[in-house]
Request: fold
Amino acid sequence: MKCESCGKPAVVNKYCKTCFIKYFEKEFKKGLGNLKGKSLCVAVSGGKDSLTTLYLTKKFYPKNKILALLIDEGIKGYRPHTIKSLKKYAKEWDIPYKIVKFEKPLDDIKGSRACSVCGVLRRYYLNKHARGFDVLITGHNLDDEAQATLMNVFMRYASRFKRMTMPLVTHKLFIKRIKPLRHLSEREVMAYFILKGFDTPMDECPYARSSFRDVVRTALNEFECKHPGSKLNIIKAYDSLNISNSTGHLSSCIYCNEPSSNEVCQACKILRN
Ligand SMILES: [Zn+2]
Ligand SMILES: [Zn+2]
Reply:
C-alpha cells in the first residue's frame, strides 16, 4: 500500500512515517485549540498517552508555563516504572513536574471497586493540584473516551455521562479540561510514540483486568474491527448532544473544603473509611 499523500510505502493507516507524524500532530494541535498565553497543567502517568500529550503540548506551546502533574495511586510494581519515565522525559524536554501521592495507597483500599475508587480520587487530586493553572490537559485517547461513553450508557450513569467533557456545574474551583488525543485512537498514539523513538513500560494496571471497562474494551475492539469508524462515531454522537452544564450552586466539603454537592465529598468518603 502506498502513502495517500506522497506515494511512498505506507506504514501506519494510509500514511508513510513522515506523513503520519504530520497528520497526528495536526490532529493533536486541533484538539488543543488556541492556548496562547495560558498556563498549562498536563496530567501525566508516565504512559505513552500522557507522555505524547506532554511532548506535543511543549512542542506547540514552548513559551507557556507548563507543569507535568503525576498522581501516584500507590500501586506496587506498576506506577514506579512509569514515574521513572516521567522523570527521564521531563528532564529531556525541560518541563518541571510534581508528584502527588494518594493519601491512602490504592492497594490499601480494598474491594472490587478499585477502578471507580481510583477514578474518583484521581479526578479529585488533579483538580485540586492543577488549581491556579488556566487549563488541565489530559491524555485520554479515542478508545478511552468511546469506552467511557458506552460504560456510562450501559450503567445508566446520567451524571457521569454529562460530565465527560466538562464539570456538571460551572464553578471557579473546577479547572477547565482539554483532551487533545480525543480523536486519535490508541493504535495511532502507540504508532506515533514508537515512530518518535520514545520508550516507556507498556504494562497494564493490575486492577484493569477485572474491570467492567475491560469487558467494554474487548467488545468495542471487536466491533471496530467489523465496522471501522465506530469508535469515532460514538464520540461524534456524544458531542452532537451538545450537553450544557448548569451554573447552579455547589457547596464545599466539610472536611477538605473542595467543591462538592454533598456535605462530604466523594474523595473524603473513600479516604476516611
Ligand atoms: Zn507520505
Ligand atoms: Zn472532601
Q: What stands out?
A: Residues 34-271 form a domain with the Rossmann fold fold (CATH 3.40.50.620). Residues 15 and 23 are 9 Å apart (CA to CA).
